[in-house]
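FAQ: What does a ligand-bound record look like?

Like this one, built around magnesium ion:
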Amino acid sequence: MEPAGGPARVGRILITREEIAARVSDLGHAIRRDYVGRSPLLVGVLKGAVVFAADLLRAVALPAGLDFMSVSSYGGGSRSSGVVRLAADLSVSIEGRDVIIVEDIIDTGRTISYLRRNLATRHPRSLALCALLDKVARREVEVPMDYVGFAIPDEFVVGYGLDHDGLHRNLQDIAVMDLSAPG
Ligand code: IMP
Ligand code: MG
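The answer part, i.e. the structure of the complex:
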């Protein structure tokens, strides 16, 4: 559902580009440590995780692969409807692969829960989840998270790949969206 109220505006910075870069580097080191001797496949979830996946890939000092898939929840707007549809599939088989799902943000957990179940049926060797942001207070479905960038409060955020109505993905910092700002 689209938020009611005035026009939405980009508000204060929640996480700076320097903080993001440092955390992505940490995550890359953790993944390298856990997957040493293997070639994990990073699966970015379009479109929100594109920026994160590109940086994470370069932070993992392993021969890693990269692929993408796209899911959309019916209804649109700022909040997940909980009904998820596969909009674009992977371009490679993941059978026998060490798959790491790379997601921008876990909110209710419904999208990632659907994705995890979907990918698990394809017999990967292992399946892990790396999420940049975790909106802990909004969780409705329990999701095992292997790597998390930042736990954040229940606010709508944009930037570093995350959008509001398709915009602001190009901001380099992560900012809070002021959904009821007066014009
Ligand atoms: P979930 O299924 O409720 O966990 O929703 C996850 C999806 O909702 C994410 O992949 C985002 O596309 C979107 N989302 C949830 N919270 C935010 C936010 O604060 N900013 C931008 N997108 C969000
Ligand atoms: Mg998304």
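Follow-up question: can I read anything off the structure? Yes, for example: The longest strand covers residues 65-73.
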